[in-house]
Specification:
The chain has 467 residues and is mostly helical. It has 3 domains: 4-134, no CATH class; 139-153 and 201-250 and 321-467, no CATH class; 168-191 and 253-318. The chain contains 22 helices and 6 strands. The longest helix is centred in the last third of the chain and has 25 residues, at 380-404. It starts with a helix and ends in an 11-residue tail after the last helix. 39% of the residues are buried. The structure holds zinc ion (ZN). Zinc ion is lined by residues 358, 362, 384, 387.
């Protein structure tokens, strides 16, 4: 035997490994007592016990490399030891298949420091994501009703009993109030990029941002454990590497449909903003009524088609707006520094790092979570609010962690003024009303439920029943 455990007898056994609110028991002594010549019988009988399937699994495993087989033997043993925490209807055959796939691309062997092996094996098999979700209780009826009011805010109409209700869409509010507001925002945003005469454009280092991106991918897993990296089919297991997905926003197409998309996205952000008069609520806009989104779509389409100058401005902004949708799984970030009137280059780098965290959160959001946007009136709470809420959690923690170690700031701000600290506004949840609503949900249900919903798709925990 060549396992670290057998040589140094550490880490101790039995012991427990915690995954947030749940614990797993670790003790391989019985497996070690089993000679390797017993492996065929061990794998076959374990598989039969788990799946009630008489297929012999050993012939598949016999093909494995020695080390991979050692990894798998321990992973299966650990899984078996912690079986009781799983729900009755759990798909054990699926878990076995995932563990077998993982064996050859594993990152930690049994006996590795900091329980790295146990963390990898129990996540890869699907044990962690299932058990941490099972440990959380969904909100009761009263709480669910309060949450529903946040996801489906009342409109400006009054029902017979005097309570607010959503009336018929008021197109005039969209046309006469929301659109002028939107046009003003386009100019505001563009002004940040217009450089004074004679001031040359300065490029940001995409290469350096790629280094930061890979750092962030690891950092988020660590800081938002056990949720961010627990989904067995998610980005931490499907080969996703943030740096490889990063591209310049200049690579984004900026044709009419892209410009229209940009405007629609802004219309949502501005339209629900209470400080701008909550114009979408005022218009009795309901994102779940196909007619409403269609009307907004048509209005903005007409606006762009009839105002060539505005369309050109929006085209410029498309190429200067961080995005997570341009191309297959690509995340786009601005390749240049804004005008000096916006702020210093170090300020901008802090801002870009925040954007990098935000875009990473989009990539880490579970598809079942993202799909809920279409089922609620204020879909942007799901589409952007929670994304920015979690991005802010990470960013605040990151700023705390790196500013404690000066070299940390120097690495992040590489070549820029490392004495600059992030602007306080970056530490606040953005996306207006969508961000405020996500925060309100978190205040009601707590961090664990929000994270389990966001990263693991357990949306019933935040009052959005699974479909
Ligand atoms: Zn976003």
């Amino acid at each position: 035997m060549s396992l670290t455990n057998d040589v140094v007898r550490t880490p101790i056994e039995p012991r427990t490994v915690a995954f947030g609110t749940v614990e797993a028991t670790v003790d391989y002594s019985q497996l070690r007592a089993l000679g390797r010549d017993k492996y065929p019988a061990y794998f076959n009988s374990t598989f039969r016990l788990l799946t009630a399937d008489d297929t012999e699994i050993w012939p598949h495993i016999a093909e494995f490399r020695e080390e991979d087989r050692t990894w798998l033997a321990h992973a299966v043993f650990l899984y078996g030891k912690n079986l009781r925490a799983l729900p009755r209807d759990f798909d054990h055959a699926g878990a076995m298949a995932r563990l077998m796939r993982r064996a050859s691309v594993r990152t930690a062997m049994p006996g590795a420091q900091n329980d790295a092996f146990e963390r990898e094996a129990l996540r890869a098999g699907g044990w962690v994501s299932t058990v941490v979700v099972k440990a959380l209780t969904p909100p009761g009826q009263d709480l669910a009703a309060r949450l529903n009011l946040i996801y489906n805010p009342p409109g400006s109409d009054k029902g017979e009993d005097g309570t607010a209700k959503v009336g018929v869409l008021r197109k005039d509010v969209l046309a006469k109030e929301l659109i002028p507001e939107l046009v003003a925002v386009v100019d505001e945003q563009l002004a940040h990029w217009v450089r004074p005469r004679g001031v040359p454009q300065e490029m940001e280092s995409i290469h350096h941002l790629q280094l930061i991106a890979d750092f962030l991918q690891k950092y988020v897993a660590l800081r938002l454990r056990p949720y961010a990296d627990a989904w067995e089919n998610g980005p931490y297991f499907d080969g996703f590497r943030y740096s490889e997905r990063l591209q310049s926003t200049w690579e984004l197409p900026n044709q009419h449909p892209n410009r229209l998309n940009w405007l629609l996205n802004r219309a949502q952000a501005i339209g629900w903003d209470k400080q701008r008069g909550a114009l979408l609520a005022k218009a009795d806009y309901d994102g779940t009524r196909p007619g409403d989104s269609e009307t907004l779509h048509v209005l903005l389409d007409e606006l762009l088609s009839t105002d060539a100058l505005l369309s050109k401005k929006v085209g410029t902004l498309v190429k200067l707006t961080g995005a997570h949708t341009g191309g297959e799984g690509k995340i786009s970030i601005q390749p240049i520094f804004p005008s000096p009137s916006w702020g210093t280059k170090a300020d901008w780098r802090w801002r870009l790092i925040r954007t990098l965290v935000h875009e990473l959160m989009h990539r880490l959001a579970h598809p079942a979570f993202t799909a809920k946007a279409k089922e609620i009136r204020h879909g942007q709470i799901i589409g952007e609010g929670f994304v920015d809420l979690l991005a802010t959690d990470v960013y605040i923690q990151l700023c705390r962690d790196v500013t404690e170690v000066r070299s940390g700031v120097e690495i992040l701000l590489h070549g820029l003024d490392a004495t600059v600290t992030p602007d306080p506004s970056f530490l606040k949840v953005g996306y207006g009303e969508a961000g405020a609503s996500a925060t309100a949900v978190r205040d009601l249900v707590g961090d664990d439920r929000v994270r389990a919903a966001f990263f693991l798709g357990a949306t019933h925990l935040i009052g959005l029943p699974l479909t």
